[in-house]
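Changelog-adjacent note: as of this version, every example in the card shows the full chain rather than a window. The one below runs 225 residues end to end.
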Amino acid sequence: MRHDSTDHTGTEHASTTLAVPRSRGLVTGLLLIALGAWGALLPLLGEYADFGFGRDKTWDFTAARFWLQILPGVVTVLAGIVLLGAGNRVTGSIAAYLAIAAGAWFVVGPILADLRTAGYVGPAIGSSDRQHVEAIAAFYGLGAAIILVGALIAGRLSVVGVRDLRTRDKRHSEDAAVTTAGPETRVAAPATREVPVTTTHVRLTDAEPERVVLDKPGVVRDAER
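Full-length structure tokens:
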């Protein structure tokens, strides 16, 4: 009998829970959304502050900006949105790895593009003394930050914590309650209505007691004089 209990416990631990608290990816999801929005909007709005790469023109949509900045930025934002509502380990892990891939593309994309076509990214818009800052903020530093956040959430999702077990037990209890609970059957009580009853005293003879006659159907009882 003890062997069966051990097997049952082992089965529960073997089928490790996939459920995680939805708050697990709240902070990292918001960070990814902020970083992705920065990376995607910088090539379109950076010219307002003379910050970025390419032509000094706002809302200038080019192939280089799309493939190297806008696309990975959008992917990062989507990964952050998925993490905000992720309630299981698989969904959260997929979003984390998408963020890591987008961050890696921010880092290696400009290098590979310039190796293929010189000047594909374009020159820095700002002055020469801040070109390195622009490169870090638009590509390399931004990509490293996204990789860090994605790796952080991926590592957290790879470990089953106490909160994960509690979340699993809570969801299992809720599912079991919904499954076992049948449809509620309520029997409506018959409607009642008060009916006024009037009585009439009738004397038959002196030898007989008074009888109370109800004008409405009811109980007839003898009344003493």
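Structural remarks: The beta strands are 199-202, 210-214, 222-223.
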